[in-house]
Amino acid sequence: AVVSTQSTGAWLDAAISIQLNEDKEQVAVLEALPSKSSHTPVFINEPRLSDLRQVLNKNGIQAEFNGGVLVCNGKVAIRRSTAGRVQLEGTVCDDYYKIRSLLYSLYAII
Fold first, then answer.
1. What global pTM score does this model have?
2. Cβ within 8 Å of residue 104, ≥6 positions away
């Protein structure tokens, strides 16, 4: 079973089993499954922040540049690190996940 909750931004691969507690009552126990793969995803493409801004605006996200940082709905900031990687930071909320999804849509992820 995969348990997912966007409110905390966490996920866990786990199995539910029924066990007896010390009072001989049945209780459900969530046990983490071993990791399936050590494959690290590879992101192909180098989208420009200006291209991302257009995609965000077309999808109802207000995105404006402020000092080289793309600020989205006043909650999420997107910038390039000195190594050239895109960094996404901000409040964990519905906007964060929507913006992250739109950012990922600009990449081929293998």
1. 0.62
2. none
